[in-house]
Amino acid sequence: METVTLKLPDKLLRDAARVASGQDVTIGHLVRVLLAKEVERRLNPRTPNRADEGLIAALQAVLARDMAEADNWDDLAARL
Question: Are 54 and 44 in contact (CB under 8 A)?
């Protein structure tokens, strides 16, 4: 591993120390984990056409009854 020096505002350093301490890890470990996640997210973005599965599931739960009881598209549109 390479050594890197960061300049952080005092409050950010204090808050990072609290988070790291709460997880029983070093600030360095916390920074490595968070940086790795952010780099992964930016290098492998979700495709914009991919739906959020959690959002779809919630929407299906809300609309399930109306969709099941509707006789046709016009009936469904009226229920919505």
Answer: no
Q: Which residues lie closer than 8 Å to 63 by C-beta, 6 or more apart?
A: 80
CATH node for 1-45: 1.10.1220
Domain locations in the chain as residue ranges: 1-45, 49-80
pTM: 0.56
Nearest residue to 63 (alpha-carbon basis) of 51, 53, 50, 77: 77
Read off the pLDDT of residues 18-51 as tens digits, 9 standing for 90 and up: 999 999 999 999 999 999 999 999 999 877 777 7
Q: Quick check: 20 and 27 in contact, CB under 8 A?
A: yes
